[in-house]
Amino acid sequence: MSNKIYHTLSLFDKWVQENNNLVNKWKQQEGGGDTLSRDQSQTHLKWCTSEFETLLRKIQGVPPLADHTQLEVSVVYNACVCFTAQSQFTEAELLLKQATERALQMAGNFPVASDPPVLWRTVLKSVENTALNSCVLYLLCLQWAIWLATCQLKMIEEFQEELTSLVETLPDGVWDDRRSKARGKSFDISLLVMEPRRLVELLQICTSIAQGAERLSEGHSSEALSGLQIASSLPAPRILVAYTHFLSGSCLAHMSRPQMALQCYRKALETDFRCVCALYQSMLIYRQLGNTQAEIQALHLLHSTRMLPSATEPALACTHLLSPSSLLRSQSLSSLLSVPSALSVLHNLALKCVLHGRVSEGVEHYLDLLAAFHSEDHQVHAEVPPLPRLTELYLEAGTALLMAQRPADCMALCDEVISTTLELLPEKLILEELEQRNEIRDVSVEGEDRVAMLLWTGAAYLLQGHCQTHLKDWKQAVIHYTRCINLLMKVWFKKRGFQPQIPSADMIVKEGTYLSVLQKLKGLSLAGRGISFTQTDQLKEALRDLQLSLQAFPECVGAGLWCGEVLWRLGRRRMAAAHWEKTWTFSAQSSLESLPVYLQEPQSGPSLDSTELRHRIQELGPI
Amino acid sequence: MSLYKTPKQTQSSSYEMLSSFTLPLVSAFVHEDELKTRMRRRPVLICVFHGQTASPPFSSTSSAEAASPVSHFHLKPVLFKRLFGIDTALIKSPVILCGLPDGRLCFLPLRLPGSRLRVLHSLEQPVVFIGASVVMKTGPEHAQCLVAVGELGRVLLIKMDKGGSEGECSRAGFTEGCVPGPVVCGCVDKRHLYYSTGSDLLALDLSKGSSGIEGQECGEETSAALQSPTSLNVCRVISLAQPTCSPAGEVQLLGLSIRGQLQRITLPVWRKDARMSKLPQGRCSARDLLSAIGDVYERASVLKTSIKSKNQTLRHLNQVLNISFLLLASTREEHFPIQEKPIRCHAMTKWSRLLQKDSLNLTCVLDNSSPYVLERGWTLTIAAFPLSCSPSAGGESSSTNFSFQFCNLHPGETLEVSLPLAAAGDTYFPVTINCSLTFSVTSLLGEEEVASFTGLQSGCISLPLNTLTVDWLHVLQVKSSTASHKNTTSQPNNITTADTIQAFVRSHRIWCSGRGDGGGGGASALKQEQYSACVRVSSELLRDTLVLKSSDLDPQEPMLAPHNLCISLLDWMLSDSLGGVKMGHRGDEIALSSPVVHAQGPNGDTVKLTAKEVNIGEESMAKESLSAIEVRVESSSVAAVCGLHHAVLHRVQTLLQRAPKRPASTKTVQSLGLRQALQRAECLLQQIQQSRISAAFGVGESTRQMTHSFLSVYRELRENPLLII
């Protein structure tokens, strides 16, 4: 009679079953994660989250009972992990807060404060040495994860003590032991979506990395270093360990110990080759040290790693819930970890090679770069930092070709630039006085910078003139230089409050402005034409051009020397000697890296032997 | 929120996705707009090449719109550079030009690293066509002019302006003009833009504007020219192919008409000196004219019918709206009594016996007392759902829906429908009956038109009429009233043997399943009414209300005797059409003569309703005691007792609403032992809470025990009611 007709599971058992079903389903999905697309797994995750939340609402419908704490905490844990994995931190925090308040009620206290840190302290104190303690620690674990993911490192520091003790207590596996003892049946144990031990390990190293990056950006390098050193011995995924080494290196670099920094970067790369940022930073250190060969080598390596197919995938991608990338979101870290794109690296490499005497290599790289632009299969995505304008790349490549004794190719490249820009050039252009280069430019309706365009065209003509000089076709050289000069004369300069005028030599020219580029171009083209005239024995014209060149750009070595030469030939030997002497004084500082490579003085033209010149001065004897 | 879509750029050689770009559409409005007209408005794509490339490396670009011609153009280098920047020109990258439904004209250089979609111009109306035209002069290959056409007829020409004054360089000129829209499709040849408005095909001479006049004047000239397109007298073209030009100068267009006809349209030779409008006339034959007339007639007759049907629909819709407003107004005013609602339902219950099975039928009457006609398209929907449900149904409350279509219901007419409410013994009362009138838009518009309205999900308007409740009192089958009149005490004998056995079997089943009685008695106790519940109503109240009610019937009797009062209370309870539902079984209409009623419930249990007068109050204060009528419900079935108790309470509630307001003396209230009652209730509440928590975890206590405890609480509650004054 008293037999139950309906055998009903108690609600508790039903809930445990429901939770375990969900967890198992998730684990299955995670196991076969490769076959599913990212979208699908995201949808699945969303579904799981809402299911856990519903279950939790049911459980929290009954008054808090000590017997069911473990189940409740498990479900809270699962739901929070899912929320955090989807970056829904406010929802997760709300759940945590509710759970801790219920824990407080179970411990017999009533929640007083709503402030999270105060609440946590109260809870931790009130459950100390009770059965609830381990449960609450699990919730604290999740709070840690949320703090980390939302970059609230201050909070983590505040709770440093508790978190450290958390790390120490967890390895004993208190949780599972207690549960299996209490229940005895495996049926009753509520499963978790992520092993708490793994979570704590992950949190520990990620916290160290985030803290290191934060301190480094605040300038407390030595503090950061000690923390990172400890973190590097923690058990963690390889890439994270590599990051600790990398950050240590960055700290050392900040403390101006480049050699030690290089060691650390090497260690980082040895730990995980995907840590490309270490390679990039090493390159920067070599550049800082002036070790050009090593810098070029590093750029080489960097380029080849960026070209690997795996390079496009983010190193931190992870199929598991709560990947490191979702925990490491601080701005300072991501700026440290950023690496320029393959094309940008290639450009850097090419430029370095050309600037440091490895011309043929540099030319190859430039050609690769240009080929990449013409190929059809490269990814179109935003470049950070942006590449220089294509026109400038063409001009640089042209200069490199000229240096590599390939004037014909250089001419072809310049032709392309000129043919592109020529039709768009204005008849007259007024350059306003600007404070900085980056200030408002004269941008026409179609979004092109007309001054820049004119200067590019001028540079292209100049390069063509250089090519002709190289080929010793003086007539052609004069034609090209003249074109350049004519073009440059279209630019008028307008000072504030004055009428537009052709820029003269006595103006103070700031480095890096359009005006400086203009003057430099003018100087170089006039010098080139002057030198060409010298070769055709038109000495008067030559002298005029060379002197004008020196006016526009007083530091021009070629113009100075050749001006002396012309004067010498005209028989004004004293003046010639004075010119030479003067030129030799500023020859040292003339190689300015701040100017584009195509604006540097050509090395390929007719040259004057300075020993011979000194000889002549000596022969001239003192006055 | 921004909407993203990804057109794919495919490479012709391998047909694999090269890369994808996201085009953010900023406003949600655009999104909605686009969704609605997805069939027609899609982004238009063309691929533009730099003029100098000899052979295009891309031989095709896929377009989001299958209908638009897959095409690419070689643009004049200067224009290309001006529009898309010199970097793009330098590497001769193909450029995707894209006209979006919000009117923006965007471009994207394909090969430039870090390039992003940039806006070239905004047409401010959906772009339907982008093309490029040579516009006479210069070489054969390079297009000099980009043309974009908006849906509403805005035409944008982009070409190089001649350099202006003051040494300014030449710049790209954007010229806008308007042609009469709507533009369905378009195409360009060397000099003309052809576009179809659906009713006509028109040609627009693009070369007029560029006849050498400079600067601003040029723009004005062009827009003036744009306003006079030439009609070509071809209607219903929805798609055009790229025109071909024969050596003789004849232009051939391929057009697809809306009926699926593929037409080859041959245009006359363009002559510069001749007026455009004169040319087609010379070639028009009588046959062409006849066919044109035929076309026009056909279109006119179609329009006429559609206007007629639209008028009819409007009239219909007017009626529908009137009725809707009427019903909405009456639902908004809650106090509006049912009897005064212009369109309402009332119902009658009736037991009928068919094939040895009792079943309860409900007859619903829809009464249209409004001045409007309920026309075709209206449906009376009746949804019946029990308040509680059987455990066998899986805990889901199941509702039954009936709908009755009707054709025309004129003012003053009624519609009677009848529906099975329940078979004997399987329904749980009370049942709520929701009556509503549903109007389906389908009857106005027809299926396919409704389907094209994505916003109108169901296509139905549902207006609630009123809600009826069929409760236990309505479904009681009162034992032959004459019998009860004769001998009330011998009532048990009236039960047939079959009924007894049935009752026995049923109660035994219930008992076995652990839901029956609390363990007392056995089979022998069957006929004892074991459960009872009572309601006490002050007789003063009853006298007031019932007399008030019956006064018009029986004005001579000023005061009902207590006995009579009991009878009239029961009578009223069983017969009154409360809430519009009436009991239909009392055809004989003999008034009750005894305050005891025996009846059979819907699941076959016998129930006894008793009304008697009692005095309530503490003994010591006898004179303060109140006389009250106690209605007692007794039955062997718990369900019957619960249901009837609920129903009786419900009736009394309506009675109270009807009663005139009167202050009750506080003394009387005090004397009713309120405090005791309150304590009792608190005690019970605790008991309930305790058992609920233990029930939730199912530990320790057996279900039976729990049920028992709940039952005792329930009985306690029902047995000691407070007096209703």
UniProtKB/TrEMBL annotation, chain A:
Q: Which GO terms describe its cellular component?
A: Fanconi anaemia nuclear complex
Judging by the UniProt lineage, the source's domain of life is: Eukaryota
Tell me which stretches of the chain form a coiled coil. none
- Enumerate the SUPFAM superfamilies for this protein: TPR-like
Q: Name one GO biological process term.
A: interstrand cross-link repair
What does UniProt give as the signal peptide span? none
Q: Any transmembrane segments, and where?
A: none
Question: Can you say what this protein is called?
Answer: FA complementation group G
| Organism name | Monopterus albus
TrEMBL record, chain B:
InterPro entries tied to this protein: Faap100
The record's listing under Pfam families reads: FANCAA (PF15146)
GO term, biological process aspect, one: interstrand cross-link repair
What does the entry list under GO cellular component? Fanconi anaemia nuclear complex; nucleoplasm
Per the record, the coiled-coil ranges are none
Listed name of the protein: FA core complex associated protein 100
Lineage of this protein's species? Eukaryota, Metazoa, Chordata, Craniata, Vertebrata
